[in-house]
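Appendix B, record 7
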Amino acid sequence: MQNNERNTVSNETEKSAVKFKRFYAGESRRSVGGPKIRRPMNVSQFIALVFIGIILTGTVLLSLPAASRDGTPAGFVESLFTATSATCVTGLVLSDTWTQWSGFGQTVIAMLIEIGGLGFVSIASFVIYAVKKKLNVNEQMLVAQSIGTDDITDSLRVQRKVIAYCLSVEAAGAVLLTLRFWPEYGFLSALKLGAFHSVSAFCNAGFDIMGFEAPGGSLTKYGSDPAVCGILSLLIVIGGLGFLVWDDILRNPRPRKWSVYTKLVVVTNLVLIFGGAVLFFILEYGNPGTIGEMSVFRKVTASFFQSVTTRTAGFAGVDQASLTEAGKAVTIVLMFIGGSSGSTAGGLKTVTFAVLILFLWSRVTGRKAVRAFKRTVQDSHVLNALTVFGLMILLSVAGGSVISATSPVSLTDGLFESVSALATVGLSTGATPALSTVAKFMIIVLMYFGRVGLLTICIGFLQEKRSVNKIKYAETSLLIG
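Structure tokens (predicted):
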């Protein structure tokens, strides 16, 4: 009897796994002896469409008179631009958030940031579970897809942890920031500032409501403040590590037991954060427009915060337009790399960047296999990394060229805006409000594609079951290099 039960459970598990693979890849199937069944929508396509719905809903809400500070309805382009930027956790804005939007408008923006950062799948599954206490197979598949795993049996446990971690970290950040702002602004204002910036920092959004100090100045007033920079940096880093990395670290406190993926994420993040901070400190040391007039301690603080926030968070601790050309180049590279997969961050992703570096090292040293921590990286993963890298380069250059050609913006600043949008960072040299209508829609497309499109490629089409080539052509020889 027990053997029969085990066989039944095994068969059900196998059926669920097969169903997951079909649902995951969106494979078409044929009924027995019947016509071909229409290919169903896969998870990535569903996510892409729902994000559009969320953006349009946010656009409608931000177009209401109550959303604007002066009661005058914002235009469609500005509402769409802001809703896209918030949902895609980017942070690029056409108008200062505090100056343009009322309390209601700022609340809408914060909600869009939360939905975009944590993912509507996480929030939806949490609500479904709270009501039903159980998810069906399709719902479990969607949850697994959203957190980057193919284990539907473990996905709900991880998802519940994700929600708990996120809310706990955001609450802790809000409390600490409230305590810091309290002496200057009073309790209620400090609480609002603390809660908004905690959510924005953890979700790597970069929106701020400090415009009452200096419209468009972002966090330049606190760009070298150890408390504010430290709290925000911690929130940004935690949000940018990725949900699966948190779970691995919390379950295995000893680094030796971490997965190869977690090790790559942590090492790459540390190298980029401290390496970027050193570069900014050296390149901007004597620049009076950024950190040149600060004390050495505050220069170190500002350089560290710039390195952290550049990696998709988008808070401006110093005036980005005043950066040296070398400083802008470093910023563009760090924005391009971004955070980690399955996190609130965007960009190329840290492990993708690490795989590319390891691939180059293996070719230079004459090795055929790409290795990381005594493990061999699959060739398919290397090809996926090269594909995403190539697409991001093409989109960044194309976007920068269109922006520069249609707006009174230099090619360097156009590329800065393009990479910032595609990597969902939100930093700007001040060119965003001056963009033409064509350039604004280009930025909207880049922000959407950076948050949803590249995700679709990475976890949808690149992992989709490949068709077998029916024809094989003769090989040819080419000159490379």
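Remarks on this record: The chain has one domain: 39-461. Residues 39-461 form one domain.
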